[in-house]
Amino acid sequence: MTRNWQTKRLGELCEIELGKTPARSNKAFWDEKRKTGNVWLSIADLLNAEDNVVVDSKEYLSDKGAAISKIVSEGTLLVSFKLTLGRLAFAGRDLFTNEAIAALKIFNERELSKEFLFYFLHFFDWRKAAENDVKLKGMTLNKAKLKEMPVSFPALVDQKRIVGILDDAFDSIATAKANGDKNLQNARELFGSYLDFATAGCLTKEWRRDHENVEHASAVLARRLAERHTQFGGKGKYKGPDAPITVKSVDLPKSWILASPEQIAIHIVDCPHSTPRWAKSGVLCLRTTNFKPGFLDLESVQFVSEQTYNERITRLEPKGGDVLYSREGGIMGIACMIPEHMKMCLGQRMMLFRLDTKLALPEYFTAVMNSTLILSEVRRLTNGAASPHLNICDIRRFPIPLPPIAEQHQIVVKLNANSADIQHLESIYQQKLVSLGELKKAILRRAFTGEL
């Protein structure tokens, strides 16, 4: 223990009250229109606290629901202790919480400052405290263990001094982080604008002036579709690919044409509609969490057995140059390309395009699928959906601005150069954000080892 500090159990210092969740099946307990003012917090609401104070929530209780719940007084320190550990905020008004949040009402604020306790619990090693209490979905504690948590603290005057230092330091870090977040967002928006310029033909105006005799994309598309018809070996009458659906006109250079993915791809394959049987090792199986605009993020991956892999590639075995697209859930509307020489299969909520490379380069097609033009289509098709997803039949008819293949090569070169610059900037900003997080930990460590 730090010299001249004392240590007591949390239960000796605070009254610990847990919230509750009234029966979801009884609508009389809930205020869906949020008119009662009976704010009811979940752990997610603590994360949205502004300046560490939470005043509102997505869910309210009815007066009937409030009557069977414990009210938390304004100013009370709140902490999550189940599954997501150690999220902290102060109640900005009288409110209610669920059972995963503990309200800590200090018995004697002349002994322990709630602001000091707030910072101490930021410093506290929650993972270590709960390492023997891992449940199905994560680590958790209970009220009895909360009561036994050791809290070390100095005299009140020193608590106030430490809190003042930490307030100033954390305010400066928050400002620096906000600037870093803004710079990161600006870098991404800059590349998005560049992407839109590229897929509208703005980056290759001079190239087109110098190459006026290049065969127009419309002629190449017509020829390739005719060849596809000729090569048709299936049964029954041949049905050609559908043209794109356009809600509003798209201005294109005269050598370009608006085509659909169905017209320019030789294969469009949906993922298997089953959850993969995961294995500790084996063959890579992609999830949409691996999707980043233009590339795959393989920092965190999962695997399946060789047998499961073979089951999941019966429609088509993915290969380098295929384009993947997320079509459901929170990570929706992102296109990326499979690198060469990567053995993998598809997880869920995604689809695959294998392009006719005489019509479209995978890199160019990926860029278009991540552009504002297609993202606006995604928003139009999913507007207001509680569980957003895109139908494959709609995706197959997205409007794709298609330049001649030679011009696509020029566009890809320019995009790659710009992408490298943007990724370098992102790397710098991300590292700064990581460093700020480490700085917070270092300052807290100094504070609670008596070095401040």
Summarize the structure.
This protein has 452 residues and is an alpha+beta fold. Helix content is 39%, strand content 20%.
Total beta strands: 23
Give the averaged pLDDT, no decimals.
90
> Could you describe the largest sheet, including whether it forms a barrel?
6 strands, mixed
Number of domains: 3
SS summary, helix count: 15
Residue share in helix: 25-40%
Q: In angstroms, what separates the terminal alpha carbons?
A: 15 Å
Shape: elongated
| Helix/strand class | alpha+beta
Mind telling me the CATH superfamily name of the largest domain?
Answer: DNA methylase specificity domains
GO molecular function, one term: endonuclease activity
EC number: 3.1.21.-
Enzyme class: hydrolase
Protein name: Restriction endonuclease subunit S
Structure characteristics:
15 helices, single chain, Restrct_endonuc_typeI_TRD, six-stranded mixed β-sheet, endonuclease activity, Restrct_endonuc_typeI_TRD_sf, 3 domains, Adenine-n6-DNA-methyltransferase TaqI, Chain A, domain 2, Restriction endonuclease subunit S
Task: Write structural notes for this entry.
This protein has 452 residues and is an alpha+beta fold. It has 3 domains: 6-154, DNA methylase specificity domains (Adenine-n6-DNA-methyltransferase TaqI, Chain A, domain 2, Alpha-Beta Complex), CATH 3.90.220.20; 155-213 and 406-452; 215-232 and 241-403, DNA methylase specificity domains (Adenine-n6-DNA-methyltransferase TaqI, Chain A, domain 2, Alpha-Beta Complex), CATH 3.90.220.20. 39% of the residues lie in helices and 20% in strands. It has 15 helices and 23 strands. The strands form 7 sheets. Strands 2, 4, 6, 8, 9 and 10 form a 6-stranded mixed beta sheet that branches. A 4-stranded antiparallel beta sheet has the order 13-22-19-20. A 4-stranded mixed beta sheet has the order 14-18-15-21. Strand 9 (134-135) and strand 10 form a beta hairpin. The longest helix has 44 residues, at 156-199. The protein is elongated.
